[in-house]
Design goal:
Keywords: Hydrolase, Signal. By secondary structure, the protein is an alpha/beta fold. It has 2 domains: 149 residues, no CATH class; 251 residues, Rossmann fold. It is built from 15 helices and 8 strands. An 8-stranded mixed β-sheet has the order 1-2-4-3-5-6-7-8, sandwiched between helices. The longest helix is centred in the middle third of the chain and has 18 residues. The chain is globular.
Length: 459
């Protein structure tokens, strides 16, 4: 792969958005992925039942092999089925399935729900969509034909499950999925709403950490990144062993400010999220990756030829920023890494905000792993495609990834369900206007608990 050190003067400020555009729609044959060679093991879940509902559990055939499932139907079922998509479960061989965070509430309100382990781990969104859809289609068979068909089926998910929930209602998914389900509405929570951006972000942050930490690489992938990581962290943070890290050098603060600009701009809670050691470690653990999403693709998906890295807020890059961008390693994504496929969904299914049903999202402002910028990119795509009238977005004043409290989950679910059932469109937050997002009280409208380290919202 050709590497260049491009002049910063020619870089385009809108590069992150442009790099998220969908590839040209033409199908091509591609070689077998590493993901296709992996073996996963599903087991019947041990999840106990709760009062007032019947719980069904077992195994069924999925995209990659067997998957496990849970289906729970209340005694007084209202006829509606909510499919729940779980988040990233790592790279182990064992598959697991979990109930939705608001399981008890769903049952108490008469909703049936179902969840799959998916038939594979890793960041396999294609498997997540197909397996969740297949489970929805088999609701009757797997509940022993005791119930009528659902009057409506909905989908919600967290993190990677939010990616699945968003992609599941896309026009391209409905056209190309093997198992087709017309969901009545979608609720992606803390979700990857712009998949190319997520892997752009992970690549950009680790590249800049290496450069600013004094160990800038001249090759991509940076195979020595994880070996050098202790020294990289030592050059940027005063203590990277505790729960909260503090940048302790000019380079460390520049890394923080570059990260702020890459993840949604100035906003409350960003700095706290940046300092959360668990999130830093999660992002830095991806450093040195080869751009194939750990074998989900066969070619490099990451490129930064047009990226501009800024630690200031002015319209024009400073001389120091220009010099820095000239020095940073540049590499190019392979345009054929994630093309449409003839055998179903893309390996990383597309999200273009092309949907025809109500979608409600919720995101924490300090999330450093799946940044708030996902919400901004998603709305920009919706505005471009004329679907913003079907989108409501909410910001929560918390630093963690998917750090929602029960009241926030329940309020979002109730508003979403009323809207999807013919009620009025709920209110949401403005995620695009910089002055609004940067306001010290931003996110107060839907935050229902004050987190440690976060300023309280005044009545």
């Amino acid at each position: 792969m050709k590497l260049t050190r491009t002049s910063a003067a020619s870089l385009l400020m809108c590069s992150l958005i442009l790099s998220s555009c969908a590839p040209v729609m033409n199908t091509v044959a591609q070689p077998t992925r590493e993901q296709d060679t992996r073996v996963f093991t599903a087991a019947v879940p041990s999840t106990p039942s709760i009062a007032g509902a019947t719980l069904y559990k077992g195994l069924y055939a999925g995209e990659h092999g067997q998957a496990s499932y849970l289906i729970e139907v209340p005694e007084k079922w209202n006829g509606k089925l909510v499919m729940y998509a779980h988040g990233y479960a790592g790279t182990g061989a064992a598959l697991s399935v979990a109930p939705p965070p608001i399981r008890e509430y769903l049952v108490s309100q008469g909703y049936a729900w179902a969840a799959s382990s998916y038939s594979s781990n890793y960041y396999d969104v294609r498997s997540g969509i197909e397996d969740t859809n297949a489970l929805a289609q088999q609701f009757g068979a797997l509940t022993q034909s005791k119930y009528p068909a659902p009057s409506a089926t909905y989908i919600m998910g967290v993190s990677m499950g939010g990616n699945i929930a968003a992609a599941a209602v896309e026009t391209e998914t409905l056209a190309t999925a093997k198992h087709k389900v017309n969901y009545a509405a979608s609720m992606p929570l803390c979700g990857v709403l712009d998949p190319p951006y997520e892997f752009q972000w992970l690549g950009d942050y680790t590249l800049n950490a290496q450069e600013l930490g004094g160990y800038g690489s001249s090759t991509y992938p940076a195979s020595s990144f994880q070996t050098l990581l202790p020294d990289i962290k030592a050059g940027l943070f005063s203590d990277s062993s505790g729960d909260l890290w503090t940048p302790n050098t000019v380079q460390g603060t520049r890394l923080r400010d570059i990260a702020q600009n890459l993840t949604g701009g100035p906003r409350p809670v960003f700095e706290l999220g940046f300092r959360v050691g668990a999130l830093q470690n999660a992002v830095l653990s991806t450093g040195g990756s080869d751009g194939t999403l750990t074998g989900i693709l066969t070619k490099n998906f990451y490129g930064n030829q047009n990226a501009v890295y800024r630690w200031t807020q002015g319209q024009t890059p400073t001389a120091a920023e220009v010099a820095y961008n000239q020095a940073v390693l540049r590499t190019t994504a392979d345009p054929s890494a994630n093309l449409p496929r003839a055998d179903g969904l893309r390996w990383l299914p597309a999200i273009n905000a092309q949907f025809k049903v109500p979608v409600l999202t919720m995101h924490t402002l300090g999330d450093f792993y799946v940044p708030f910028a996902h919400e901004q990119h998603y709305l920009q795509m919706a505005q471009k495609n004329g679907t913003s009238g079907l989108l409501v977005q909410r910001a929560i004043r918390a630093a963690g990834h998917c750090e929602f409290v029960g009241a926030e989950f329940v309020e979002a679910f109730n508003d979403w369900m009323k809207w999807a059932s013919g009620g009025p469109k709920p209110t949401g937050d403005d995620v695009l206007t910089p002055s609004v997002v940067a306001d010290a009280k931003y996110g107060c409208q839907f935050t229902r608990a004050t987190r440690t380290g976060v300023d309280a919202c005044q009545p």
